From TrEMBL, chain A:
The keyword Nucleotide-binding applies. Belongs to the ABC transporter superfamily. GO terms for molecular function: ATP binding; ATP hydrolysis activity; branched-chain amino acid transmembrane transporter activity. Residues 5-237 form the ABC transporter domain. The keyword Glycoprotein does not apply. This is Amino acid/amide ABC transporter ATP-binding protein 2, HAAT family. One of its GO terms (biological process) is L-amino acid transport. SUPFAM superfamilies: P-loop containing nucleoside triphosphate hydrolases. It comes from Tistlia consotensis USBA 355. Keywords: Amino-acid transport, ATP-binding, Nucleotide-binding, Transport. Signal peptide: none annotated.
TrEMBL record, chain B:
CDD domains: TM_PBP1_LivM_like. Keywords: Cell membrane, Membrane, Transmembrane, Transmembrane helix. It comes from the Bacteria. This is Amino acid/amide ABC transporter membrane protein 2, HAAT family. GO terms for molecular function: branched-chain amino acid transmembrane transporter activity. Its main location: membrane. It comes from Tistlia consotensis USBA 355. It is a multi-pass membrane protein.
UniProtKB/TrEMBL annotation, chain C:
Coiled coil: none annotated. Its main location: membrane. Keywords: Amino-acid transport, Cell membrane, Membrane, Transmembrane, Transmembrane helix, Transport. This is Amino acid/amide ABC transporter membrane protein 1, HAAT family. It comes from Tistlia consotensis USBA 355. The chain crosses the membrane at residues 6-29, 41-59, 65-83, 95-116, 136-160, 189-214, 226-250, 257-278. One of its GO terms (biological process) is amino acid transport. It is a multi-pass membrane protein. The keyword Disulfide bond does not apply. It is found in: Cell membrane.
Length: 237, 327, 292
């Protein structure tokens, strides 16, 4: 298996406070990998480091062998890593449609804009009716759909989703998971952060348990589902 | 030794050393320039309390200084109040004005405060300069209520000219030194005392401090008002020292000069602003040769420091200390 | 009736001038959280460059205006590179850039004074004559100012609303991190916004000086007024700033007519303070974002 994304001994943090310690990771083409772990142990920090919003203090990050850890965020997006951040971070004073179109900001994505827009609307039909509404006035579930949809508009090689089901009602979570399953079926490479380990285990090829800045356990979904009790302590489930 | 005690000791030692200066260097120029240094040092030490310690981004400091100067001159000019009485009265007027400004501005966010205080200062300036109706008509010509562009002169002095003759400036030196010592003691009391701790808490952890009932607004208003007292007093003394009070005290160049002192020395520290005031007075002295380039030089110094060394010279030393502690 | 036309004419002219200098400030604050205190010096610089090109070199105004806009746009770019960029990532940016731009403004103002002298000069770019409406004279110059400002605002609105650069500016102002995740190079956006703001300042400075003449410190009061307008509108709210600029322009003309020039700024300010006590985030300010 040739790795799409490789992290080697990456460290990162804020100021003097180190959050990610010596972490290594390899993600294969077409894989769906999940990062699980308790609150505040650095999942978001790791994604922000990969997408260049934070600079790693050590280690290397590479996409298909090309070093990314000194590049600017916009260059990393151009290289093909799309990050749907925790809390959506929509553009509140733009409409739903404008938000989605911002996803296709880079020229390469802009060429595919019309086609991808149809794909997003097919995935989240509700957004088609809400096109003209200001993003700042959307409900939490709608906002999440716009956030994910905006990420899909960008295309790219690897999609990173940070807690796509956080804070949503069960029925909306089902819709989001359906969308993730569709993505998986279409062969996209996905790195997803999820608190609900049991649920993501059904979909993921591989799971990594992040504990205090490094991986405490890695394995397949089947492994996790077969012996959940050993991880219960970590996950507080 | 606690930081407060150490500061106190430094303060008294410095004051003692400075008290000897007129005995050692007798030239009038050095003594009067030192007196001016005392005045500016008082203003920046108080401005630093407002800006660096309480975190109020106020640009009204020179306006409060001007209020002190004008109130003194007007009390002397219109009511012939003796200067010894007029000066503290004027300082109280500054406090009153600062409380009004504070009530209007302090609930707003940082940049709003900066712009509003700057605008208020500018309005005061315009009121003084644009008011051209004669209030009285002395032999020297029409006198608007706020003195107009010419300003006030001959409003009285502290009496040292009569007492000491040509050596009056030495007495003013000691008055200035006394003022600065008082202002520094006040500064130390604020920074090292409960108010300083409250602001430290607010800076470090706003949410927690607020939940413990540390209300920012109240404390900020206190510091704003109290620091206006010494600022106004410095303004009053400025008027007495030069015998003239005119709209030049509002000038942007002076504001820039004093702001540079704080930034160069180190915002929020006890001694940084004093150091900055001394260095900038010296730099200013050095640049006197190059005349017109002086203001440009000051601007360059200010920009270089904010961009490259935002914590000032005092910050440099603090960083050195913390590095030494770590290793 | 005549009085009303008179007040309307000078109020709209004032408003147009304020609006033009306010847009730039508001855009810069909306995108970078930067209060550019060098703006006043940029206004003066624009006025003097136009004066230099027309009055000293003897070239036509059609060259003087773009030359001024180019020089000031470049100056804005330099301010970004030398002052804003090095401190963007570190703490206390808002305060530090404010102080730094005070210093830059002072430097620029003094350079202008050394180059052109402290005495006032007339702006060569001025129309003479007036339109007669009944018994009221409306100077052509006022109409020109109104026309140029409105045209320029339309250009800026189109730029922000319809172009790729404009989309990037708005996205950056609304959410810096998200903009980066869309592939926007925000450093470039910042530089563009400051350059744009500089060019607008040049135009505004030329218009102001065509009414009141050139002085090295001529930018101080207009800048302060522009900031006051930004505050009333809510910092960073571009559309609100334009509305507030015209409102305050009309108000100022009214106060000037009723009470005389010397009190207009003071009263304006009292009104602003009242507005802020009533609505601390400004008249239209919900959040700090670039809105259209
Ligand atoms: N901007 C920041 N500055 C300083 N510390 C931060 C910052 N952002 C996060 N942290 C700290 O870094 C640690 C890891 O945070 P992170 O957001 O990566 O956790 P997480 O695993 O994503 O948690 P959650 O599941 O709650 O989203 C936390 O202790 C957090 O307080
Ligand atoms: Mg997280």
């Amino acid at each position: 298996m040739s790795a799409l994304l490789t992290l080697e001994r990456v460290s990162a943090g804020y100021g003097h406070q180190q959050v990610i310690r010596d972490l290594s990771l390899a993600l294969g083409e077409g894989q769906l990998a999940a990062l699980i772990g308790p609150n505040g142990h650095g999942k978001t920090t790791l994604l922000r480091t990969i997408s260049g919003l934070l600079h790693p203090s050590g280690g290397t990050i590479a996409l298909e062998g090309r070093r990314l850890d000194r590049l600017r965020p916009d260059q990393i997006v151009e290289a093909g890593i799309i990050h749907v951040p925790q809390g959506d971070l929509l553009f509140p004073e733009m409409t739903v449609l404008e938000n989605l179109r911002m996803g296709a900001y880079l020229p390469e994505a802009a060429r595919e804009e019309a086609r991808r827009l149809e794909e997003v609307f097919a995935l989240f039909p509700k957004l088609r009716d809400r096109q003209g509404q200001l993003a700042g006035t959307l409900s939490g579930g709608e906002r999440r759909m716009v956030g994910i949809g905006r990420g899909l508009m960008a295309g790219g090689r690897l999609l990173m989703l940070d807690e796509p089901s956080l804070g949503l009602a069960p029925i909306v979570i089902d819709q989001i998971y359906e969308a993730i399953a569709t993505l998986r079926a279409s062969g996209r490479s996905v790195l997803i952060v999820e608190e609900n380990a049991m649920r993501i285990a059904e979909l993921a090829d591989v799971l990594h348990l992040l504990d205090n800045g490094s991986f405490a356990w890695s394995g397949s979904g089947a492994e996790l589902l077969s012996r959940p009790e050993s991880l219960a302590a970590y996950l507080g489930a | 030794m606690s930081a407060g005690r150490r500061d106190l000791l430094v303060c008294l030692l410095l004051a003692g050393a400075m008290a000897l200066l007129p005995q050692l260097v007798g030239t009038r120029y050095v003594v009067t320039q030192s007196t001016l240094f005392f005045i500016w040092a008082v203003v920046v030490s108080q401005w630093n309390l407002v800006f660096g310690v309480a975190g109020i981004f106020s640009l009204a400091q020179m306006a409060l200084f001007a209020v002190g100067a004008y109130a003194t001159a007007m009390l002397g000019y219109y009511f012939a109040v003796p200067m010894v009485v007029a000066m503290p009265l004027a300082a109280l007027v500054s406090v009153a004005v600062s409380l009004v400004v504070g009530l209007a501005c302090l609930r707003l966010r940082g940049p709003y405060v900066a712009l509003l205080t700057l605008a208020i200062a500018q309005v005061l300036y315009l009121v003084v300069v644009n008011d051209t109706d004669c209030f009285t008509n002395p032999p020297s010509g029409c006198m608007p209520f706020f003195g107009g562009v010419r300003g006030f002169s001959r409003f009285g002095d502290l009496g040292f000219r009569a007492l000491l003759g040509s050596k009056w400036y030495v007495a003013h030196y000691y008055v200035g030194l006394g003022l600065l010592t008082l202002a520094m003691l006040f500064s130390i009391a604020i920074v090292r005392g409960p108010l300083g701790l409250a602001f430290q808490a607010l800076r470090d952890n706003p949410g927690y401090a607020r939940s413990r009932g540390v209300g920012q607004f109240k404390y900020q208003l206190w510091v704003f008002g109290l620091s206006a007292f010494f600022t106004g007093l410095a303004g009053a003394f400025y008027g007495v020292q030069f015998g003239v009070v005119g709209p030049i005290v509002f000038s942007l160049a002076t504001l820039l000069f004093l702001l540079s002192m704080m930034v160069v020395g180190g915002l929020g520290t006890v001694w940084g602003p004093l150091l900055g005031a001394a260095l900038l007075m010296l730099a200013d002295e050095g640049m006197r040769e190059v005349g017109d380039w002086r203001d440009i030089g000051l601007g360059v110094i200010l920009v270089l420091f904010v961009v490259l060394l935002p914590r000032g010279l005092a910050g440099l030393r603090l960083r050195g200390v913390s590095k030494a502690k770590q290793s | 009736m005549n009085v009303a036309i008179q007040i309307l004419s000078s109020g709209l002219t004032l408003g147009a001038i304020y609006a033009l200098s306010t847009i730039g400030l508001s855009l810069v604050y909306g995108s970078l959280n930067m209060l550019n205190m060098a703006h006043g010096a940029l206004l003066a610089l624009g006025g003097y460059v136009c004066f230099y090109v027309m009055g000293v070199l003897g070239l036509p105004g059609l060259l003087g205006v773009p030359a001024a806009m180019l020089v000031c746009g470049l100056a804005g770019f330099v301010v970004y590179q030398l002052a804003a960029r090095p401190m963007l990532a570190s703490g206390g940016f808002e305060t530090r850039i404010f102080i730094a731009t005070i210093g830059i403004g002072a430097i620029l103002g003094n350079v202008i004074q050394r180059s052109f002298g402290p005495q006032p000069v007339a702006q060569p770019l001025a129309l003479h004559g007036a339109l007669v409406l009944g018994e009221v004279y409306v100077p052509y110059q006022n109409l020109l100012i109104l026309f140029v400002s409105v045209a320029m605002m339309a250009v800026v609105a189109l730029l922000l609303g319809r172009t790729r650069v404009g989309r990037a500016i708005r996205a950056t102002a609304q959410n810096r991190d998200a903009a980066q995740l869309m592939g926007i190079r925000i450093g470039r956006v910042y530089a563009q916004v400051l350059a744009l703001s500089g060019a607008l300042a040049a135009l505004s400075g030329i218009l102001i000086s065509s009414l009141s003449g050139l002085l090295p410190n001529m930018g101080g009061d207009p800048m302060l007024k522009a900031f006051v307008i930004c505050i009333v509108a809510g910092l960073g709210n571009v559309f609100g700033a334009v509305v507030a600029a015209f409102l305050l322009g009309l108000l100022e003309a009214l106060i000037q007519y009723l009470l005389g020039v010397q009190y207009s700024f003071a009263i304006l300010l009292l009104i602003v303070i009242a507005v802020l006590i009533w609505r601390p985030a400004g008249l239209f300010g919900r959040r700090q974002v670039v809105r259209l």
